[in-house]
Amino acid sequence: MKTPAFKPKKITNHGNECWRIDIPASYSPTGKRTRPIYTTKAEAEADSRKLRTQAQRFGNQLPPIPHDLHATVVKAVKLLEPHDISLEKAVTEFLKRLEKTKASISYEELVDRVVKHKVDQGRRTIYVKDVRQKGRHFIHFFGEKKICDIGTLEIDNAIASLEISPTSKQVYRRYLRLIFNKALEWNLIERNPVPPNKKDLVRKREPKIFSAAQVTRLLNGATEELLPYFSLAVFCGIRPKEITRLNWEDINFDKRVIELSSEQTKTHCRRLIKIEDTPYAWLKRFEGKTGSVIPSSFREKFDSNRKSSGLFEEWSSDVLRHTCATYHATYHENYEKTSFMLGHDVATLKRFYFRPVLSEDAEEFWNITPDSFEAAVWQRT
Predict the structure, then answer these.
(1) How far is residue 85 from each of residues 56, 91, 181, 339, measured CA to CA in Å?
(2) For residue 208, which of 86, 140, 316, 371 is within the disulfide window of CB 3.0 to 4.6 Å?
């Protein structure tokens, strides 16, 4: 069947010169023969070109369009005109979006999948617990919502609504980004809606440290069970969780070295720590002990000891490690040596652990020994 030319014809309609196009029923959207009339030749020729293009592309296979549907199409086209988007493109994009939504999962399901993945990777229990706790904290906001429908603004509003410090909000944002990064890795989303933390969002605070007098008070008030923990933390800079994994067999008193295996360290890298004179003075009494360095019911005894020493309210996260880092770097005047002992780089030391102090304060700290106490520490139980 020959394709119609849809050539405009000049006619007179009610005494006025105009133009008409004859559209056969098989090419008409209504299924009936139509003869639209145009006031100018340019309008008629423009529609003629569209009709010829459509006929060449689809032939006469276009189904008839009911009047109400035709009206809907016209309305949709007008809505899209200001955005310079064709109806075909809009529908195509909508269908793509629809398919992604069907293939997507809820936020709650994503958290569960990420947690399971971390468990399957063999990640430490405390880390998995943090991922689970931080992730599930936002189920109240997102829950059953599809992750492909969660935007950056919603993320920001949810984090802003948390009644916690700005620093803690950054921690929650970091875990959210981790969770959505997994969704991105698994091709469940096209981009991560959680932007990274900006360094200027929170003013950097100096790390909290204890003075030599406070450390003296802590050690003087420590029970014999907890004295090794406090000594290893404040004089050797070992992380709290690393100490809980430490056994007495890991401490070589002859060579004055503490060996932390890759399974014991936070970074999964083996680390050797030299036992300097001050920590050796505190630890040598325990030479020959075996088993775990920390006692049973550790947390309860730990909190009780801090309260009895009067430092419970002044305690902050990693305060003993910060104290060690500050006085060690100041005393030795060597950032690299301190970083090597702590198990991280110099930039991390300066940014998160070190607080400038006077050299005489550092010297006072490293002169804290059992002999300097009037109280009989060793008699405590």
Answers:
(1) 22, 10, 32, 58
(2) 316
- Which residue intervals of 186-295 are DSSP H helices? 212-220, 227-236, 240-244, 277-283
Alpha-carbon distance of 53 to 26, in angstroms, equals 15
Residues in the chain: 381
Q: List, in order of start, the domains of the chain with CATH numbers.
A: 9-65 (no CATH), 107-185 (1.10.150), 212-379 (1.10.443.10)
Taking only the tens place, the pLDDT of each residue in 222-278 is: 999 999 999 999 999 999 999 999 999 999 999 999 999 989 888 888 999 999 999
Instruction: Scan for tokens 């981009």, then name that residue.
Output: 191
What tens digit of pLDDT does each residue of 132-143 get? 999 999 998 987
Q: Which two tokens stand for residue 338?
A: 């301190």
d(CA 320, CA 322): 5
171 is written with which tokens? Answer: 């921690």
**89 is written with which tokens?**
């493109």
Residue 282 contacts residue 235 (beta carbons within 8 Å): yes
